[in-house]
Amino acid sequence: MASGDIAYETIIGLEVHAQLLTASKMFCGCSADYAAAPPNTHVCPVCMALPGALPVINRLAVEKTIRAGLALNCTIAGHTLFARKNYHYADLPKGYQISQYELPLCHSGWLDIEAEGAARRVGIARAHLEEDTGKLTHMGEAAGDTRLSAGRGAATLVDLNRAGIPLLEIVTEPDLRSPEEARAYLVKLQQILRYLGVSSGDMEKGAMRCEANVSIRPVGQTQFGTKVEVKNLNSFRSVKLALEYEVARQIAVLEAGGRVVQVTMGWDEEHGRTVVQRSKESADDYRYFPEPDLPPLEINPAWVAELRAALPELPDARAARFAAVYALDERDAALLAGERATADYFEATAAALGGTAPAARTAANWITGELFRLMKAAGVEIEQVQVGPAALADLLGRVERGEINANSGKRVLGQMFETGQPAGRIIDELGLAQVSDADALAAAVDAVLARYPDEVAKYRAGKESVLGWLMGQVMRETRGKGNPALVRALLAKALEG
């Protein structure tokens, strides 16, 4: 980015916290399914930090962290341990968070992304395991809360249901060079975590949260500028907008002769700006030291090899296979492979249609076109769709065989989407079976040509575009059930006669 006579380079590193999908919390047996629970009902002496309570490591959380690390091309540590990260907030009942510091479970990985027409490899410094905090709700007269009596001021409510949920923290190297690259990285990371089944990756629900470290420097300078941390980024859009704003703000500070100060900024979505929250802590401020209540973890290489062998085919590899095996264009292949459930749905539909490349392309066209349109209008995901792969394949087979035409097929799919009924029943109930009887269609053609002699004359005088209009009239004559290919052939023959 350029400003005045100086061109600046943007340096971005991201810290992503993803809640792991486990039945219980990280260090106790409390249920991790807390979203719809009343406040402070999924708690116990361990996650409330009552005296004498001792933590126990959740093995599944360790396994899912290793799986994520392997998918991110990380080295898996043979020896690791937990540490106490000390800081004091009301949502942290112990006064410290159990995390990892010097010996993370996964380190030295990378993730390839593509943004703004260029490829970039983003280094993964570490992917480690820790516990989530509780949740604070600030209330009071200033916020319009009438439950607090006059004169008592504001209050902060604490819900510890979330405290202790297993949390995977993934920290990049400062390798990203634009807000769009940061957004592309988060999209790719979310895809991978969902493919693995280790996290829902839902940013809007707080299951995946992002913090960005951003700085600028004159192009050609090797030394990094002063970094600023930006928090409260709860969507891909917020990440991009906040980073664009913060980069512009830092440039304006330098251009005005000031200096950028290392602080923590929050993203104010309503006003579209970053605002100072507090001075930025360093690692020394957290006073890390080994967690005395938990043993070091020794990771068996055979277990890591077993987890590596069980990894699913990931989005990039699956998209490449779709393009190579089914001859799909890269855009459709990436769109279908982006979510594991969608990719599975597509492949099941293609297999039910015969598994050939043409069958797969037919399935891809209908899924990325009409089915996605219906899903978007209804606000549902592929897992919620009432039309299974076999049912969709049945409908597409009927269209391919000429039992109904494509327009009727779309109408039938809409009914299947709403009701879950099979294609054959809907076709019979709506009377949509395609007319392929040549004599019946020829009669419809003759009726249309007799009704519109002026258009017939225009066509015979050389205005060939009239053919499409006349075909539309024949389709209307047959109530949309005429076989389009046969209608066109009969109409052309009659016009030339």
What number of domains? 3
> Tell me about the biggest sheet?
10 strands, mixed
The share of residues in helices is 25-40%
Q: Count the helices. How many?
A: 15
- β-strand percent reads 15-25%
Structural class: alpha+beta
- Residue ranges: pLDDT <50 for 5 or more in a row? 141-151
Whole-number mean pLDDT: 91
Which word captures the global form?
A: elongated
The end-to-end span amounts to 67 Å
Number of strands: 17
Alpha-carbon Rg, integer: 30 Å
List the helices and strands and how they pair.
Blueprint: E1 2-3, E2 6-19, H1 59-71, E3 75-76, E4 79-80, E5 83-86, E6 96-99, E7 106-115, E8 118-131, E9 135-139, E10 155-159, E11 166-172, H2 179-196, E12 208-218, E13 228-233, H3 236-255, E14 263-268, E15 273-279, E16 289-290, E17 297-298, H4 301-309, H5 315-326, H6 330-337, H7 340-352, H8 357-378, H9 389-400, H10 406-419, H11 423-430, H12 438-451, H13 453-460, H14 466-477, H15 484-496
Helix pairs in contact: 2-3, 5-6, 7-8, 7-9, 9-10, 12-14, 12-15, 14-15
Please describe what this structure looks like.
- By secondary structure, the protein is α+β, with helices and mostly antiparallel strands.
- It has three domains: 2-306, no CATH class; 313-430, no CATH class; 438-496, Arc Repressor Mutant, subunit A, CATH 1.10.10.410.
- 39% of the residues lie in helices and 21% in strands.
- The chain contains 15 helices and 17 strands.
- The chain has helices at 59-71, 179-196, 236-255, 301-309, 315-326, 330-337, 340-352, 357-378, 389-400, 406-419, 423-430, 438-451, 453-460, 466-477, 484-496, and strands at 2-3, 6-19, 75-76, 79-80, 83-86, 96-99, 106-115, 118-131, 135-139, 155-159, 166-172, 208-218, 228-233, 263-268, 273-279, 289-290, 297-298.
- Strands 1, 2, 3, 7, 8, 11, 12, 13, 14 and 15 form a ten-stranded mixed beta sheet that branches.
- α5 crosses α6 and α14 packs across α15.
- It is elongated.
- The relative contact order is 0.09.
- Mean pLDDT is 91; it is low at 141-151.
